[in-house]
Design brief:
single chain; mainly alpha; Arc Repressor Mutant, subunit A; 6 helices; 3 strands
Length: 126
């Protein structure tokens, strides 16, 4: 058995709600990847992210904007348009995301096996 966990390891003052890593938002990483090569319009994002509803995409973009990872720029003129782009903070996530993608690729078979085993165990428990 390892060293006991510190009961104060999670500082109650810590802004953990500001964490850009969201288990519940499966679209954030994909949105960041879509913006990697430059700003995009909402309609452009909908193409590779066709599995997300407009409402959920809007919510994800707003969350990323709130966290300072994505900027929203409204262009005035006869053809008004809005573009979303990575901020410097958002762009700083690309390296860690590359590392996570490489890790997932290296361990893909193990991850799939674990999920399949878990599904079997859960099915048997029901």
């Amino acid at each position: 058995m390892g060293k006991p966990l510190d009961p104060d390891m999670f500082d109650p003052v810590c802004p953990s709600g500001l964490s850009p890593i969201r288990v519940g938002d499966k679209w954030a990483g994909m949105i960041i990847r879509c913006l990697e090569d430059g700003p995009r319009r909402f309609s452009e994002l909908r193409i590779p992210l066709r599995g997300v509803s407009a409402k959920v995409l809007t919510q994800s973009l707003r969350s990323l904007e709130r966290d300072g990872l994505v900027s929203r720029t409204a262009h005035a003129g006869p053809a008004q348009r809005v573009e979303y782009g990575l901020t410097p903070l958002g762009r700083s996530l690309l390296g860690p995301m590359d590392a996570l993608c490489a890790w997932a690729e290296e361990h893909w078979d193990e991850l799939l096996d674990a999920r399949e085993s878990f599904a079997v165990v859960c099915d048997e428990a029901v």
